[in-house]
């Protein structure tokens, strides 16, 4: 829960600080709007001066800023894996093999890494659109500045037109991306192969051509100076490289708001741009290809209705310019290759635009061979095309793969300490004054991922900054150890105080398994209250924080300190709280999710505890999420009761299945977990320590491997695919403490790389209170309901305890239900 605080200003703990950007692709980034020049891009291509037989040949594309990440290793012992040879790109016909072999090692490596199934699958780049995040500076009653996320109303009222425009553009570009995803999914069902780039910009590559091509000549003596793509307009482009139908280039016009004059002006600009782009691409990109692919042009108007477009076309006296730019023969054809706002909401009309845009054959050959398609994907993605995503950090980010998306979404939602912006709801809790001078009590109650821990950490920081000697962090249950370690560590390190500034107090044994008081527990609470009273006599006040708290313990301490007339601060947080009547006035509900993206939230909301009201429901946040998030990935486990081909699965439970471990390892590889991404600014992608494997497992080291709840077989499956693992027992306090400290952010996880760089396998209760970008949930239930219709264990506990630990990607390993059990 505490992987976030870094956007507090000036609450910045120096050791947590790192580069401003946490996700960058294996290509040059473009500048941020208004204040950052475009980075030099590598040459488009370098052609051999002796192009014998006109065989396709590409340069190494080793730009000054970026080197392509190597493919994931799939073998080697955990913690010390050697890079495995890249898998073959695709099955190729013999006649095209010679041409494909002319790809440079760098290009071959790039295609293997980013497009491993290029011949059989379609890809979309970026894998999701991410919204711009706007923030404002706010001041608490402690006279500290904190970044707070702006609501839509605040943006509309307070901000300049430029800021409002970004919100509008995000909306329309997200709609374009959604439509192209629909097209990709339908194409996959119909066995069509393509690569779609939804936020491309061809024009940025004319920025500094002299240094670009001079650098290319220095690296490759056989290269010649290619013509730069010096396009006049800087449109957002949609580019589709279709395996059968060639290349489609579409200019996106994001802002017209159904104004006929604006639409007419933008149509003319787009047509001139597409005409120029077609000529430049055919000459500079495709000039040396033996097989010339077809080039298609289209225009996307996601802010214009079909009625407005038809009115504009009827009133234009001369359509010649539009027809030439779009390579069509009549005004009717112009209308057909323009995609409007209302077309995007109608699948039939969307399909009609797609067919009309790709059916024309303008001076090219539809039937590309494998070699030409491979060359085109390489040329348009290494890195002719710049894909930009907009987050609250600068410069803009580029996402290529699902793994980059997971990393970026994880960093945006589970932000590292020193990089957090709160919702107004959380900020108001910190801002409001205490109930009275002697007693400052807050009980934070809400579902998982609503920044309850963050608020506690900020409160502890304020206390230390104001000069209090010690903050006591209370652990009230066995499952709260990780949360207590996390809060204590973050408060101490964020404030820069010494070891004695935060004291952890273990009160985990005061209640029995039924929630009743034990005699030992009563004595322990009485002894601790005496100690607190002595501390108050010396320092004037005591300060207590408790995360994932048992409310019975908190209430007992609250009443005892009030009875002794002790001045105290008591802030506690929890998900399941039975708050007594005399403490109701201190309750503050935090229900707006700040940690997990909507895709994860929707799964957590299906938990039985949330449906029954035991845990409060989420409320809609006042600002849109940066991204809906990667969809949940699933692995089907065919258990002992399944009739038919079990596809290598064994055992009743998923944790006892090595085959499930192998399949999860393959998914992690597809997300490029553990790969070294040599991206700009030294940024990498997901690491093995970014992954939790959770479930109802017993990870004790002395438990035999054949125990029904031992995850040893699943771990063997992971390690057989080269994924290093670390099993953490529930009672291993040192290992839990290390996990909590690693949650502080990527800087802390980087410090533990080497021997500690491994996937964590643990019982879901062991890491309660911590988070990771990727969570693998091993379900022991049978679908949504058990054999008698009750909610399965997955719905009762697993969704809440395991899935909610994810800040980005959930991989759900669950039993396949076919109603064919014996």
Topology (elements, then pairings):
Layout lengths: L93 H7 L4 H10 L8 E3 L9 E5 L5 E5 L2 H7 L2 H29 L4 E7 L8 H11 L16 E7 L3 E7 L7 H26 L9 E7 L4 H10 L4 H7 L4 H6 L1 E3 H4 L2 H13 L10 H15 L17 H12 L10 H8 L7 E7 L6 H14 L5 E5 L5 H15 L6 E5 L12 H21 L2 E5 L4 H13 L4 E7 L12 E3 L8 H7 L3 H4 L21 E5 L20 H13 L20 E5 L16 H9 L4 E4 L4 H10 L3 H6 L7 E5 L8 E7 L14 H9 L4 E10 L7
Parallel strand pairs: 1-4, 6-7, 7-8, 9-13, 9-14, 10-11, 10-12, 12-13, 15-20, 16-18, 16-19, 17-18, 19-20
Antiparallel strand pairs: 2-3, 4-5, 5-6
Helix proportion range:
25-40%
Oligomer: single chain
How many helices? The count is 25
> If strands are numbered along the chain, what order do they take across the biggest sheet?
1-4-5-6-7-8
Count the domains. 3
What proportion of the residues form beta strands (DSSP E)? 5-15%
**Span between N and C termini?**
42 Å
Uncertain runs: 1-101, 205-228, 389-396, 678-683, 744-755, 783-790
Class inferred from helices and paired strands? alpha/beta
Alpha-carbon Rg, integer: 29 Å
Average predicted local confidence, pLDDT: 75
| Major β-sheet profile | 6 strands, mixed
Form type? globular
The count of β-strands is: 20
């Amino acid at each position: 829960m505490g992987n976030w605080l870094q956007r507090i200003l000036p609450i910045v703990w120096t050791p947590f600080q790192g580069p401003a950007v946490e996700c960058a692709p294996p290509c040059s980034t473009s500048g941020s709007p208004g204040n950052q020049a475009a980075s030099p891009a590598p040459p488009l291509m370098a052609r051999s001066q002796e192009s014998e037989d006109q065989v396709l040949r590409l340069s190494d594309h080793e730009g000054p800023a970026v080197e392509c990440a190597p493919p994931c290793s799939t073998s080697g012992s955990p913690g010390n894996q050697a890079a495995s040879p890249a898998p073959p790109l695709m099955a190729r016909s013999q006649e095209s093999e010679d041409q494909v072999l002319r790809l440079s090692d760098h290009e071959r490596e790039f295609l293997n890494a980013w497009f491993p199934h290029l011949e059989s699958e379609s890809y979309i780049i970026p894998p999701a659109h991410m919204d711009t995040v706007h923030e404002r500076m706010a001041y608490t009653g402690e006279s500290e500045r904190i970044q707070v996320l702006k609501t839509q109303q605040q943006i509309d009222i307070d901000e300049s037109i430029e800021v409002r425009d970004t919100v509008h553009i995000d909306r329309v570009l997200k709609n374009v991306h959604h439509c192209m995803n629909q097209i990709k999914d339908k194409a996959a069902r119909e066995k069509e192969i393509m690569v779609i780039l939804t936020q491309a910009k061809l024009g940025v590559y004319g920025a500094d051509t002299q240094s670009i091509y001079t650098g290319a000549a220095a690296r490759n003596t056989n290269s010649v100076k290619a013509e730069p793509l010096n396009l006049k307009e800087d449109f957002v482009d949609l580019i589709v490289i279709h395996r059968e139908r060639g290349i489609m280039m579409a200019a996106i016009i994001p802002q017209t708001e159904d104004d006929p004059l604006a639409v007419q002006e933008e149509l003319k600009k787009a047509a001139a741009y597409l005409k120029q782009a077609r000529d430049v691409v055919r000459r500079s990109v495709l000039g040396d290809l033996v097989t010339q692919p077809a080039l298609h042009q289209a225009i996307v108007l996601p802010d214009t209705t079909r009625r407005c477009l038809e009115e504009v076309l009827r009133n234009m006296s001369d359509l010649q310019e539009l027809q030439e730019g779009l390579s069509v023969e009549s005004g009717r054809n112009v209308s057909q290759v323009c995609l409007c706002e209302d077309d995007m909401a109608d699948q039939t009309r969307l399909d009609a635009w797609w067919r009309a845009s790709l059916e024309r054959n303008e001076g090219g050959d539809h039937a590309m061979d494998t070699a030409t398609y491979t060359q085109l994907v390489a040329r348009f993605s290494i890195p002719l095309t710049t894909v930009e995503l907009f987050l609250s950090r600068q410069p803009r980010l580029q996402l290529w793969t699902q793994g980059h998306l997971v990393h970026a979404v994880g960093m945006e939602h589970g932000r590292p300490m020193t990089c957090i912006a709160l919702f107004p709801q959380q900020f108001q809790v910190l801002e409001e004054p205490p109930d009275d001078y002697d007693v400052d009590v807050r009980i934070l109650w809400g579902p998982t991922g609503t920044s309850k821990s963050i608020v506690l950490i900020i409160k502890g920081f304020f206390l230390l900054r104001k000069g209090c000697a010690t903050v006591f962090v209370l652990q009230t249950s066995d499952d709260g150890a990780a949360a207590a370690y996390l809060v204590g560590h973050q408060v101490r390190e964020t404030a820069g105080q010494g070891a004695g500034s935060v004291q952890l107090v273990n009160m985990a044994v005061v209640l029995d398994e039924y929630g009743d008081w034990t005699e030992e527990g009563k004595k322990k609470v009485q002894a601790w209250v005496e100690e607190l009273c002595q501390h108050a006599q010396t320092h004037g006040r005591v300060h207590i924080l408790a995360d994932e708290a048992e409310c019975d313990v908190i209430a007992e301490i609250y009443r005892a300190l009030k009875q002794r007339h002790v001045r105290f601060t008591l802030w506690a947080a929890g998900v399941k709280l039975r708050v007594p009547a005399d403490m109701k006035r201190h309750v503050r509900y935090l229900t707006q999710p700040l940690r997990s993206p909507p895709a994860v939230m929707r799964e957590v909301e299906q938990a039985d505890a949330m449906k029954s009201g035991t845990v409060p429901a989420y409320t809609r946040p006042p600002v849109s999420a940066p991204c809906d998030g990667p969809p949940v990935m699933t692995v089907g486990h065919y258990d002992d009761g399944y009739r038919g081909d079990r596809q290598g699965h064994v055992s009743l439970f998923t944790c006892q299945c090595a085959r499930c471990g192998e399949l999860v390892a393959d998914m992690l590889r597809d997300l490029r977990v553990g790969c070294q991404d040599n991206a700009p600014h030294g940024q990498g992608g997901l690491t093995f320590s970014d992954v939790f494997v959770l479930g109802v497992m017993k990870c004790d080291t002395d438990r035999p491997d054949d125990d029904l709840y031992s995850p040893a077989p699943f771990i063997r499956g992971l390690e057989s695919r080269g994924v290093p693992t670390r099993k953490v027992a529930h009672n291993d306090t040192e290992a839990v403490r290390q996990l909590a400290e690693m949650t502080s952010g990527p800087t802390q996880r980087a410090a533990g790389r080497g021997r500690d760089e491994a996937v964590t396998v643990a019982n879901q209760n062991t890491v309660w209170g911590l988070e990771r970008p990727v969570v693998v949930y091993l379900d022991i239930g049978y679908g949504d309901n058990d054999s008698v219709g009750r909610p399965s264990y997955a719905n009762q506990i697993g969704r809440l305890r395991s899935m909610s630990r994810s800040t980005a990607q959930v991989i759900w390993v669950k039993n396949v239900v076919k109603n064919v059990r014996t």
